[in-house]
Structures are given as structure tokens and as C-alpha cells.
Amino acid sequence: MKTLQALLVAALASVSFAATAADTVTKSEAKEMKAESKAEYKAAKKQADANHEAAEAQCDTMTGDAKKACEKDAKATEKKAKVDAKAKHEKEEADIKAMKK
Questions:
Q1: N or C, which end of the chain has less CB nearby within 10 Å?
Q2: For residue 47, what are the CA distances in angstroms to 29, 68, 71?
Q3: pLDDT, tens digit, for every residue of 5-35?
Q4: Beta bridge partners of 100
Q5: pLDDT (tens digit, 9 = 90+) per residue, 44-58?
Q6: Where would I find the beta strands (DSSP E) of the chain?
Q7: What is the domain count for the chain?
């Protein structure tokens, strides 16, 4: 459920940047947008860490191969979430740079 919420928030943030991509912005507006993007990126990384810890806690109830598979899946999910967050952040940074007056 938390993952779905995070995806929805990310999608909404992408829409807001895409909607302004055709516009130009002042330096101060660009600075604010960059700060917002960075904050969202940090929040996404924290959320990935929290989701990983929760998944690891569920893995602790397992044993043997099932536990190993669960831990591997939890780590892969965390890694993907962080990679996606970084890609989104870098895209937003590029969009902001392109919008500067």
C-alpha cells in the first residue's frame, strides 16, 4: 500500500513538472523547483529504506531458502526504488535547467 502511495505521489510530481516544461521560469523559481525536487528525492530514498526495513522484518519470520529469497527480493525492490527516484530527480533537474530564462 505504501508503495502504491509513493508511486501516486511520484506520478503527480511528474505531471506538475511536465505541465510547466513548456514554460520558462526565473532563476528564483528554478531554485525553488530544484529544492523541491531534491526534497522529493530525499523523501523517496527514505521511503525506499523504510519499505526495505519493513520487508526485512517480514523476512525474519521465515527460514532457509525462503528467507534468503525474501531478503534478496527486498533488497532488489529497495534498489529499484532508489534507481527510479534518482532517474526522476535527474529528469526534473534537466527539465528545470531547460526552463530557465
A1: N
A2: 27, 22, 17
A3: 555 455 555 545 554 445 788 888 889 999 9
A4: 25
A5: 999 999 999 999 999
A6: none
A7: 1
Query: How many other β-carbons are positioned within 10 Å of the β-carbon of residue 11?
Result: 10
Q: How far apart are CA 66 and CA 36, in angstroms?
A: 40
Q: Which domain holds residue 63?
A: 2-99
pLDDT of 66 reads: 96
Sorted by sequence, the CB contacts under 8 Å of residue 60 that are 6+ apart come out as: 67
pTM as predicted: 0.72
Distance CA 12, CA 9 (A): 5
Q: Are 50 and 82 in contact (CB under 8 A)?
A: no
